[in-house]
Design a protein that fits this description.
The strands form four sheets. The protein has a seven-stranded mixed sheet with strand order 7-3-2-1-15-16-17. The chain is 50% helix and 10% strand. With 652 residues, it is α/β, with parallel strands linked by helices. It is built from 27 helices and 17 strands. The protein is globular.
């Protein structure tokens, strides 16, 4: 036996010091391999829409309703199934609603408890008892375990379970117990959650989404470009910070910064009123739905919007000139403005009239230089972002659970795209003098993201933080995937031709099987079994676009969670569920409110389409975790052999 192998087995023997303990663990792991694989739930491009996100988490994109159908089949009416499903999603609210209408609550409690217990039994059956026990709510763990565990030794089972349920009702704990069972079903129905990026921007509640994810039992996150720009703001990268603030103002979401994260916007407000006090700033109208803004607030928002936009364009111009290898010189737009003619010459040579010609903070000899007032605003806001404890905790979650991509159970998950040449080959991208492509590009960029937070070398930190801005909007960034971000043009130029952003070749080559196969192989996956799952680009269902590409090998799950996209997508988002039976894509209707969901018992799952059925039910042994368990079993068998040969001594 090699020295390294013996040393490893000696370390393993510290965990399993006897033949009996090692044998028990082998038996335990072997039994786990033969359980059905846990259900994976995929969401993308949530964009701050907390209420819709929360509802989809509660219903598991139809997984809860499917469990109810599996349990009750034709023994319950569709109406009763809908009612039970709504109770699982919103137990507190549903109980309060039922109490207003139901005359015999004792009977309702009893029927409901029995139904929930049956659903709970089926939901828990695919897990080990140990895993279920860890998921049980502490207050009712023992009682729930009794109710969902078959007890062969009890002769009169009906009387045994009746006595438990009757006691729960008699002592006035029925409502609490129903809530506990409903939340347990939600917890067990989905084993693992994948969030494929863009948690932030546009919608009003990204901080609530992050709070919810902080407590989620099992998840991973693939960063989107909107997440990375917030990461940049959190480490004090000025252009990223200006972008975050501009986006928040543009969609009427300053509450996210001020109330959600406690970042004081007064420095920007005071500066905007001082510099743009007489400027109507009409092209900087707030989008979204700021219906709670009065006239003065709307006026102030426009001025703040313009102030931070000009600051952003200046900061971006400096970065583009500092980093010519970013190939973002087309964002050096301020130098093309002719203030006397009121026109701008874009980097492509075209000249256009400006919709706004008032630029009091721009020195035309040095157009990208911040004024003293702008510098002070940037410094004060940067300090507020860097020192916001809640924001830093949320960014730490993105770092701990996230990355630019993930391979999981044979599938490749990322937010945006893999940069490709027009012939379908991997595009080579230069990052600080080093050329890389495909997986190596993703790995290189992710390393820089992490260094932006943790490196102590000031030069390396500056370079890493600047890369965050590149990932947000760079032409070869895998998270952006377009030739340019035409923010300036959308504000200042009426001609919509200048607003166009050309997509990377990935977005029209994803129907070519040989190209998709090469991408899967690049990340070490089997092209015959694997899928690419990504978001970022809304699926235009209204125009007949299909989210399933390349005969099911590529699945796009950004269908318009964000309200701002629904007029072009026609739906309110796609989600994906990967159960032991296969992959199914779910389309969602717009979510109105929890109150409406409770009262009408209307779910937002509008359509479920099978992407792939497994020829046999997938087991834990078929998953990545299963492979790891099999390796562990082999190591434990080696340990048993070492014990029996006397190479390692038992410690009884």
């Amino acid at each position: 036996m090699k020295t390294e192998e013996l040393r490893y087995l000696q370390r393993l023997a510290e965990l399993y010091p006897t033949i009996g303990k090692a044998s028990t663990e082998i038996i335990n792991l072997q039994s786990i391999l033969n359980l059905p694989k846990g259900t994976e739930h995929f969401l993308s491009d949530i964009h701050g829409e907390y209420e819709a996100f929360s509802h989809v988490l509660r219903n598991g994109s139809g997984a809860v309703r499917k469990k109810i159908d599996d349990v009750f089949g034709h023994t319950l009416s569709n109406s009763d199934k809908r009612s039970l499903a709504t109770l699982v999603y919103y137990p507190k609210e549903k109980i309060a609603y039922v109490k207003k209408k139901e005359s015999d609550m004792q009977n309702w409690y009893k029927i409901t408890l029995y139904r929930l217990i049956e659903v709970c039994k089926t939901t828990a059956s695919k897990y080990t008892r140990s895993k279920v026990r860890k998921a049980l709510p502490s207050d009712y763990a023992y009682v729930i375990e009794e109710l969902i565990t078959e007890k062969a030794e009890v002769l009169d089972k009906e009387a045994y379970y009746d006595s438990i349920v009757d006691t729960i009702i008699d002592i006035g704990r029925a409502e609490n117990f129903i809530i506990a069972l409903a939340e347990l079903i939600q917890r067990l129905v989905v084993d693992h959650l994948h969030v494929l990026g863009d948690i932030y921007d546009r919608g009003p509640g990204p901080h609530f989404i992050m709070d919810r994810l902080m407590d989620y039992h099992s998840l991973d996150i693939q960063w989107g470009n909107h997440d990375v720009v917030w990461m940049g703001a959190a480490v004090g990268q000025a252009a990223c910070m200006a972008t975050v603030i501009r986006n928040s103002i543009r969609y009427g979401n300053l509450d996210i910064l001020e109330d959600g994260y406690g970042i004081n916007m007064m420095p920007l407000a005071a500066f905007a009123m001082e510099v743009y006090g007489d400027d109507p700033c009409q092209v900087f109208e707030v989008h979204g739905n700021p219906s709670n803004y009065n006239a003065l607030e709307k006026e102030l928002s426009r001025k703040m919007h313009k102030a931070i936009s000009i600051i952003q364009f200046k900061l971006e111009g400096v970065l583009a000139k500092e980093h010519p290898d970013f190939h973002m010189e087309n964002r050096c737009v301020l130098e093309g403005i002719d203030p006397e003619k009121g026109t701008v010459q874009l980097p492509d040579g075209s000249v256009h009239n400006l919709l706004d010609t008032h630029f009091p903070t721009i020195d035309w000899e040095h157009p990208y230089e911040l004024t003293d007032g702008e510098k002070e605003v940037v410094e004060r806001l940067s300090s507020a972002f860097r020192n916001c404890e809640k924001l830093q905790n949320h960014m730490q979650l993105l770092l701990d659970k996230g990355g630019l991509y993930k391979t999981y159970n044979g599938n490749l998950l990322f937010h945006g795209s893999i940069p490709l040449n027009e012939d379908g080959t991997l595009k080579e991208v230069e990052i600080y003098g080093e050329t890389c492509k495909g997986k190596a590009l993703y790995d290189k960029l992710e390393a820089y993201v992490r260094k932006a937070f943790f490196t102590v070398d000031e030069k390396e930190k500056k370079a890493s933080q600047d890369i965050l801005w590149y990932i947000w909007a760079g032409p070869n960034s895998p998270l952006y995937g377009k030739d340019k971000m035409t923010t300036f043009e959308r504000y200042f130029i009426a001609d919509k031709e200048t607003h166009k952003e050309k997509k990377n070749a990935y977005y029209h080559l994803w129907e070519k099987e040989e190209v998709v196969n090469r991408m899967l192989e690049e990340f070490g996956l089997d092209p015959d079994e694997g899928h690419i799952i990504n978001g970022h680009v809304p699926v235009h269902q209204l125009e007949g676009e299909n989210p399933v590409k390349c005969d099911g090998k590529v699945i796009v799950i950004d269908g318009g969670f964000c309200e701002a996209y629904r007029n072009v997508t026609g739906i309110a988002g796609y989600t994906l569920v990967y159960s032991s039976y296969g992959l199914s894509l779910t389309a969602h209707e717009p979510f109105t409110s929890a109150e409406d969901a409770v009262e009408t018992e209307r779910d937002i799952v509008s359509n479920r389409v099978a992407v792939r059925y497994n020829p046999r039910r997938a087991l834990v042994g078929d998953t990545d975790n299963g492979k790891a368990l099999k390796e562990r079993i082999q190591e434990l068998k080696q340990l048993l052999d070492a014990y029996r040969k006397g190479v390692i001594k038992e410690k009884k």
